[in-house]
Structure prediction request, 122 residues.
Amino acid sequence: MQVNRTFSGDRYDVTLIADDSDNVHGIFEIHATCKQTGRTSCVTHNNHVIVEFIQPVFDDNEEVEDSTYIVNTPGLFQKLVDYTIKLLEEGVNKHLELAFDDDRAAGEWERSNRELTEPALC
Prediction:
């Protein structure tokens, strides 16, 4: 399964990029793009993102590579993707925008806007 889906917030677009097409492990990333500046960052490692999306379903034994989650447990990848899509469809990303503002203000967003088509392994 490959997912590349963007959800629009007030000030940020949040993109879920997930891929388990090799049938061995799943790569999971969440990116945010500031609508005003076009700056983009992989925010999977953001504390608010971890609390909202990752902790409810994530097994601490899974491998984390910087901001990319590599999920090796059968069924967990699908559960993580489904849960994240459900929350983003409900608009959860809108209340995360303050956390994204803080990250940007701290200089955490180094990438300029780029097309988000596959995991960046950021």
Notes: The two ends are 20 Å apart (CA to CA). The chain has one domain: 2-105.
